[in-house]
Amino acid sequence: MSSEQQIEFSRDNIDLYLKEVAKAYRKLAGKALPAEIVLIGGASILINYGFRGMTTEVDALIHASSGMKEAINQVGDKFHLPNGWLNSDFTKTRSYTPKLYQYAVYYRTYANVLTVRTIAVEYLIAMKLCSGRQYKNDLSDVLGILAEHKKSGNPITMEQIQAAAQDLYGDWDYLPESSRDFIARTMANAHPETLYDQIAAAEKETKATLIDFERQYPGVANEANASDIIRSLRERKNSALKDGKA
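Given the sequence above, the corresponding structure tokens read:
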């Protein structure tokens, strides 16, 4: 976790960078060694939906020869992107499972050598619920996906989401209890799309609070303890408000 200024990736520049990666990889490895990238998380959402304008991370599963690392670095240098801009570190998180490859759907082929896929919708929702980070876009992303599918006349059901979680993680209860409660309340709401702005604003506020904490206590917050820190900060704030009213 870091409060440093981050690069903003959009659908357009992700497409541009992937095209450049494919061209660089083809020069390095030739046409005989095709490669595959599966976009995860925010990048997958940007590719498939219109409710988010940017992400600060491009998480991806990469299947390619050793030349791919050099191709990614060349594109990073060309466009002044940070090291590791095409990130596979998410494989260390709770929401990752090797089964994700089974539920990747075709997006586009670049330079006749790089195939790009994204995660099928119900599995993407299951991943977001598994992460359930209050300081990221996890829950608002779930709402945005549900809203777009409902508007298009192809709504996602609770049964589909539960089945996807079962496929990925072997058990619905693998998802955090807070995420299971959230999706149950959301699916019971006749108009879940109306919750998007509220949840997105709450995530933004929580992120700002956590960044402020990191400035005061550098290196303390991480993915494992962020939820506990957020809860403690909220309890402290509520206590101060009560004392102020007394």
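The mean pLDDT is 91. Try to locate this feature in the token string yourself.
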